[in-house]
Amino acid sequence: MLQIDAVEAVYQNAIAALHGVSLNVRAGEFHALLGANGAGKSTTLKAVSNLLPAQRGKVTAGSIVFDGHNVGRTSPAALVRLGLVTVLEGRHCFRSLTVEENLLTGGLGRSSSRTELAKDLERVYAIFPHLRDKRRALAGLTSGGEQQMTAIGRALMSRPRLLVLDEPSMGLAPLIVQDIFRQLKRLNREEGLSILVAEQNSTVALQYADRATVLDTGVAVLAGTTAELRQRSDIQSFYFGES
Ligand code: ATP
User: Which residues are bridge partners to 34 per DSSP?
Assistant: First the structure.
């Protein structure tokens, strides 16, 4: 579904962030992108969702193909229409809109009827029941976990086929992290949603994902099933530290 092949990327300060990243997310797969702080996980996801120019960065080599389309120059909005939707690091919500208004913004790109939007909202509330209780609260006043769920819920409102998430566990309590990953797994299993998640929290990512790719200083150094990677205690301590 998503093929990243030998991608290299630099930022304006000419520091090369990616030196050749290749990874493959199969249709229906839950794929984790792992690696230490600064390994290049966020840069890889920004390359996929064409957000590097906004950071004064660019892809200088390699190719990114989504569903048969070469998407190297496809705008983020067009990617959403193709079915590739990204949830950025840091729980991006419109803080002064309510939770429900935030969710509804995710459906704006489609010409959906009110009934369809209402159905999609119900689907998000079924996944994150907590958001239903908070639907009239200003997103900026909700907890970190609720903001992350709102950000994911908003992405789901655009009906992605591949959901890309950057470090959804960041700054959240372990129980909330488990809850979020459990729901992602459920979407993956029950609805066939393909997922690519970058995570520093390798324990939770290896627990829920099917396969993983490990980055080290801008290079993909390892890929395999999470069952295989969980066995490799040498790799665990070398690449993942204590997380
Ligand atoms: P983290 O979990 O800390 O975000 P990461 O694995 O996602 O780590 P990246 O954020 O992709 O790593 O960073 C890869 C390299 O690119 C690092 O050396 C980082 O300093 C550099 N970098 C990231 N963003 C920028 C930027 N906007 N401008 C310049 N250099 C950057």
Answer: 199, 214
